[in-house]
Specification:
This protein has 395 residues and is α/β, with parallel strands linked by helices. The chain folds into 2 domains: 143 residues, Aspartate Aminotransferase, domain 1, CATH 3.90.1150.10; 246 residues, Aspartate Aminotransferase, domain 2 (3-Layer(aba) Sandwich), CATH 3.40.640.10. Helix content is 42%, strand content 16%. The chain has 14 helices and 14 strands. The strands form 3 sheets. It has an 8-stranded mixed beta sheet with strand order 2-9-8-7-6-3-4-5, sandwiched between helices. It is globular, with a radius of gyration of 21 Å. Bound molecules: pyridoxal-5'-phosphate (PLP). The site of pyridoxal-5'-phosphate (PLP) has 12 residues, from helix 4.
Amino acid sequence: MFASRIDWPLAPNRLSKQLEERRRRGLLVLDLTESNPTRCGFNYDVQEVLGALTDARSLTYDPDPRGPLASRLAVVDYYAERGIELTPEQLFLTTSTSEAYSFVFRLLADPGDNVLVPRPSYPLLDFLARLDSVELNSYSLLYDQGWQIDLGSLERALTPRTRAIVVIHPNNPTGSYVRPEERQALLEWCSKRQLALVADEVFFDYALGPDAAEGNRRAASHAGTCETLTFTLSGLSKISALPQMKLAWVVVSGPGEILRDVLTRLELIADTYLSLSLPLAHALPRLLDLRRSMQPQILKRVRSNLRRLDEQISPASPVTRLKAEGGWNAILRLPSIQSDEDWAIELLREDGVLVHPGHLYDFASEGYLVVSLLTKPETFEEGVAKVLARVSRSV
Ligand SMILES: Cc1ncc(COP(=O)(O)O)c(C=O)c1O
């Protein structure tokens, strides 16, 4: 009766069941997975958030498949601050980055075509691709004192039906930015094999360390790429910490001769749905501007949680933290004496601490837990102490 594209397991997994049971019994949960910024105690300018929605232009229905020009110009300004010049014609507003992915997949791929995605990465990609009947082939990110793209695995993953390479800059959960030399290799492949590059940059503004390389990375959004057809995705859910506003965009860049054709086709897709809510679309300039008060708060939180985490891990601990350059997560490596899922279940059952097992992000092996650096500091510190104590006791 149902299409096979939604043929995925519907039953809750063991960890979700355990969590449900714990909550039902009213037991405390120290949640180290909270990634919803609206629940993390940040200080939002309530009047500005709500006031942005009361624009009188919203009283008239005057749809533009790309979104209102004034709102696209605000996004143009956002990139101009990062040294990238765009025209508003290169921009399409969408209701989420997920919708932006979907538009790009529909534009580029027929059923059975594939796109390459990093592994480990963000679990929703699987679902998005399947809903658009696109196959995912993964390429590996390897860790050796820092994450890097295994370019050999990327080359092996390419097939005649590959349509695009997805990079997540910085990636979730590894927190790794694409390095300049990796980017160069990807651009060459894309040009040679007529593939598009899709760059998900939702966490771009959240560099974790004020190191020298940071300046280079920050300048290197993919939105300014002109050597090959490139789609750069981002949105308010992370930039302004407003996931509930459902506003994102895709920037199209690339060689002039193909760009006009791509923009016309993408416009057809956007025009078919006209999914943007105009009150929100008109609110974009003000909501985007809220990043100026939200990003410093979030950066302060994630950097200080990371520092605290490092202070808590003693040199003798069997747990280590993997290097992260950006984003809202930290990855703990621990002895794989049991599966990641079993570690997560034990931590929840015995200590009331909720963490994400690495397999959720498709790590290549066991031995990884992911914690959210957005977590409130008291919960973070107490939860981390319990994780470290449990692992030390178990080995
Ligand atoms: C890497 C990455 N891309 C995209 C998204 C989704 O963004 P949106 O809320 O705009 O759909 C997420 C959500 O966590 C993410 O981690």
